[in-house]
Every structure is written in C-alpha cells, then in structure tokens.
Amino acid sequence: MLQALPYHLKVRDYFAQQTKTWNFFAAQKTKEEQLAQYKTELLKNTYKFDVHADAAIYEKVHIAKTKLGLEQLPVTVYQAQYTDEMNASIVFLDNEAHIVFSGRITQLLDDNELLAILAHELTHIKLYSMLQGELETAERIIMAIAGNYNSEPAYFETARLCRLYTEIFCDRGAYTVVEDTEPVITSLVKIATGLDKVSAESYKKQAQEILASGSDLKAAAVSHPENYIRTRAIQLWHEKQDAAEDEIINMIEGITDLDQLDVFKQKEIALLTRRFLQLFLKPTWFQTALVTSLARQYFSDFIFDEAAVLEDDLRNTIAQSHSSIKDYLAYVLLDFALVDGSLELIPFGWAFQFAEDVQLKEVFDGVIKKELQLSDKKLQQHKQKTLAAWFKLKEGEKEQIYEG
Predict the structure, then answer these.
(1) For position 394, what pLDDT does the model report?
(2) Which among 339, 331, 350 is positioned nearest to 400, based on CA atoms?
(3) Residue 208 pLDDT greater than 80, yes or no
(4) pLDDT class for 31, splitting at 50, 70, 90?
(5) β-pairing, 96-102 with 87-93?
(6) Residues forming beta bridges with residue 97, ordered by sequence position
(7) Edge-to-edge strands, sheet with 75-80
(8) Residue 302: CB partners within 8 Å, gap ≥ 6?
(9) Which whole number is the average pLDDT over 328-345?
(10) Dihedrals phi, psi of 137, to nearest 5 degrees
(11) Which of 106, 267, 306, 365 lies 20 to 30 Å from 131 when distance is taken between CA atoms?
C-alpha cells in the first residue's frame, strides 16, 4: 500500500505551523493563479495525443489509473515541441491531469516501460490527493521558497530532498502498477542515457557498487535525483516493503554534512551548538562581557546553564559526526578562545582540555596548527603553556562539567 513518506510529513508539519504562509498557498485562488499560465503554455507548445488515434497510450493510462485508484481522474497526454531533452512531467489543474512527454520517449520505451512512466507520473496525483491535499500544498511552498535566490541554503536542500522523496514515492506507484522493478529501472535509465537497450540487473549491481564505495555517500544536488539512488530504493522496497524505510532514509540523508543542511538538520546543529557552548562556557571565569556578547551572536537568547554536564550521548554524537561538523565545532572553540584578550592564555588551555573531553582533540589541534601557523613542536609548546595557565585556576564544584 502506498503511504506518504516520513520526509513529506515532516515538511508538511513544518510549514503547517507557519499559519499565514500555509493559508496563502492552500487557498484555491493562489493555486489556480500559479497553474493557469502553465495550461496556456501547454497548449501552445505541445501536440495533444488523441484518445482514438493514440489509443495505445490511453489504454496504458487506463490501466495505471485503475491500479492506483484514480479511475475518475480525467487525463490528457501531450508531446512537447521544440525540445530534444527526454523527460516526463505532470500537472493537476481543474481536477484534470496533464502528462507531458519531452523527446523521443514514446519511441524509446517498450510497452511496459511506457506504462511504468505513465504510472510514475500519475502517482504524483496520488501523493498530492493524500491528506486532503496537504502534501501538495507543502511541496508548492518549499519549491516557491527554494525558487527565490535570496533563500537560505537550507531551503534549497529541503526542496531537493523533498523532490527526491517524491520521485521515490512515484517509483513505488509505477512498481505497484507494473508489478516488476525491471521496467521501472530500465525506463529511468533509458530516459537518462538515450540508450535503446539497458540491463536492469547490471544497473542494480552498479547502484550497489556506487553506494558501497563510501559510508558518507548520499544524494548530491542535481536537477533530477540520482538514478542509482532511486534504483536502489525501489529494489529495497521490492525486497522489504515498509521495513526498508530506515535503510532508504540513511542512504539518502547519510551523516549530517554542514554543507548540506536541510531545515531539520539545521535545527539539530543549532541545538548541538547551544548545548556545546553551554558546557564550554560553564566556568564563571569565562562569562565576561565579551564572551557573553559573542555567545549572543550565536543565539540571541543564549543563557548560561549552571546545571550543564558532559554526557556520553554528546561525546558519541560528536565522535560519529561528519568531518565538516567536527571542523565547525573546533572553530567555535577557537572563536571563544580568542575573543577576550584579558583572559590571556586560560581560554586556550580550557579549549584544549574540552576538545579532548568531547572527542575533538585531533581536529582542534589541526585547526590551531593551521590558523596560528604552528609547527608540531610549537603546537605542543603552546598547548603545554596554555594548559598550565588553566590548571592554576581554582574552579568551584558548580563550574565542573563532569558528573561526580
């Protein structure tokens, strides 16, 4: 049974909390305005397949609609003009579906592959009709935000992932109709490559080999989601159904990379940073005006936490983080070690000790060597001198970050 994917629900819930934005995009008038121009351009720049003259195409449409539970949906199929790029797309307008083929898709694909493509496109409507159309509203919101060049990178990444999960969901719809992974995969590869013949088995092996080449590998930002990701995802779903969901999510999102944060991981990193700073800045000697000011540049509502203690879950989170996250946290330490010159060497000594406690020793040492342009010998001398300065401090029991 086709169900909305967890990421779709996260995006829906995220924007549903932003009432004004949600109500604007959910309004029927807004939707009609956004799509009306599309229909005009559609008729100008396409050839419309005739129900009688092109009966073979519409027979496949009927099969797909029946198996997807969309029997009452009117569907029109078009061939785009003035383009050689192969693609298929769909738009839902005035309760009608309009499927547009670009390039030589109808000549390149066999009957099962063409059925798979039509089913894939119709599954977009299946997704958008779920939950009273909320998923369609959420997707239009994130695509509109990502389409604005002033938007934060996290919105671009959220849109990319949302689009990828939508393609994976629609591949499942195609599989539901054709009841076989092969035409789903071969149609995908043929459209991407233009080849007349491809082997689904060979491509499945290729996808597995690519994904096995590195644990950090995940989908990169491209105009159309990576075919090997979609191929592996549909194969896993064929083998395990809903039990494959966690494996598919891990394959797509992987370890959090600072350069590819969506709005959800951006929030996770913000929470990690706040917790990290509350530990590092717990000693009262560190809470000077300059340090406090810098902390509030990170978080405008930052407050010191006397109850903060270092726990194993934080150590483990940092130890298992992507290298970009570790580098970022090391630079946060350096930022605060340098901000208040009146504290002299003490913050550096505490930073060296803290970095070791939170599994960042090697990374922090590397950052200090690079930014202060120190040799290995000079680094060790700097570390010894600053640690000695910190050791001379008499911190109270309440200032400790260690339990017991």
Answers:
(1) 63
(2) 350
(3) yes
(4) low
(5) antiparallel
(6) 75, 92
(7) 46-48, 75-80, 96-102, 87-93
(8) 274, 277, 292, 295, 296
(9) 96
(10) -60, -45
(11) 267
Distance CA 335, CA 357 (A): 18
Q: Distance (Å, rounded) from C-alpha 145 to C-alpha 372?
A: 40
Question: Looking at this protein, which amino acid is placed at residue 28?
Answer: Q
Q: Looking at per-residue confidence, does 391 or 60 come out higher?
A: 60
Q: Name the pTM for this structure.
A: 0.88
Q: Which residues contact 139 (CB under 8 A, 6 or more apart)?
A: 8, 11, 128, 162, 166
Classify residue 283 as exposed, middle or buried by CB count within 10 Å of its CB (0-12, 13-18, 19+): buried
Distance between CA atoms of 303 and 323, rounded to whole angstroms?
Answer: 28
**34 pLDDT tier (thresholds 50, 70, 90):** low
* Sequence-distant (≥ 6) Cβ neighbours of residue 198 within 8 angstroms: 186, 189, 190
DSSP track, 3-31:
---HHHHHHHHHHHTSHHHHHHHHSHHHH
- Residue the block writes with tokens 């590397």: 366
226 has pLDDT over 90: no
Q: Is 400 left (phi over 0), alpha (psi -120 to 50) or beta?
A: beta
Which amino acid appears at position 202 of this protein? Answer: S
CB atoms within 10 A of CB 221: 13
Stretch 381-401: mean pLDDT, rounded?
80
CA distances from 321 to 314, 326, 329, 335 (A): 11, 7, 10, 20
Which amino acid, 58?
Answer: Y
Residue position matching structure tokens 């270092």? 310
- Residue pLDDT, tens place only, 259-288: 889 999 999 999 999 999 999 999 999 999
Token pair of 279 as six digits: 């530990």
Distance CA 215, CA 251 (A): 9
Write out the two tokens for 173: 């719809």
Instruction: Check the CA dihedral 128-159-317-240 and report its sign.
Output: positive
pLDDT at 27: 84
Distance, first Cα to last Cα, the chain: 52
pLDDT mean over 176-194: 96
Question: What's residue 151's pLDDT?
Answer: 92
